[in-house]
Amino acid sequence: MHKVVPYTYWFDPVSGRTFSLYTSWKPEGSVAVTKGYTIAWGDGTSGTGRPAFETEAEAEAYLAKVPKGFRGMSMVAS
């Protein structure tokens, strides 16, 4: 269901800006960077609304605190 996954994003080395991996536009020359870990929720969303965890163990500890029955971040939105 929920799992810890590497956090990957686009980085533009010219401007220093970052972009979501799922963006429809990124500057030419952007490179994919993987740094840290985040949570992939069972509903197809990912992320925790905070910066990525530095280690996989930190992300696993966070995931262990998630209440049973939590389906994902879309449960939080109303």
Describe the secondary-structure layout.
Layout: E1 3-11, E2 18-20, E3 31-40, H1 56-64
Structural write-up:
It is built from one helix and three strands; from the N terminus they run βββα. With 78 residues, it is α+β, with helices and mostly antiparallel strands. It has one domain. It has a three-stranded antiparallel beta sheet, with helices on one face. It is elongated and about 45 Å long.
List the defining traits of the structure above:
single chain; 1 helix; 12% helix; 78 residues; alpha+beta; 28% strand
Number of structural domains? 1
Tell me the major beta sheet. Answer: 3 strands, antiparallel
Q: Which structural class best describes the helix and strand composition?
A: alpha+beta
**Weakly predicted, low-confidence segments:** none
Broad shape: elongated
Mean pLDDT: 87
Span of the ends, CA to CA: 22 Å
Rg, Å, rounded: 14 Å
- Sequence of secondary-structure elements: EEEH
Helix count from the secondary structure assignment:
1
What percent strand? 25-35%
Question: How many DSSP-defined strands?
Answer: 3
Brief synopsis:
The protein is built from one helix and three strands. The chain has one domain (3-69). The chain starts with a strand and ends in a 14-residue tail after the last helix.
